[in-house]
Amino acid sequence: MQAALPEKIVNKITYVAKLSNETFSNFITGQCLEALILGTMFFVTLSIIRLPYALLIGVLIAFTALIPIFGAFIGCIVGAFFDDYGKPDESTYICNCVHCTSADRG
Fold it and tell me: Quick one: which of 21, 45, 51, 92 is 20 to 30 A from 4 by CA?
């Protein structure tokens, strides 16, 4: 790149590339940290109210939380289907847990 372009343009391209890399890396790190915290919160909450599959649902919600905006709700629906085979009332607890936790996140 330095052989074909003037130094001023190469410096601008390098600056933009470094800034983009730093911004994107910070975004991915933040998303992963949020997903980890959310999955842990669900595991602890579902364990406290003694629902089955608490760990499975917590991990599922942590992975689906990486999908922006709707990820946790997708995890809620799938988690409710997992738990619906035992007692249907417990899937209501899972959905309420997702609603309360999502309201807490802002």
Answer: 21
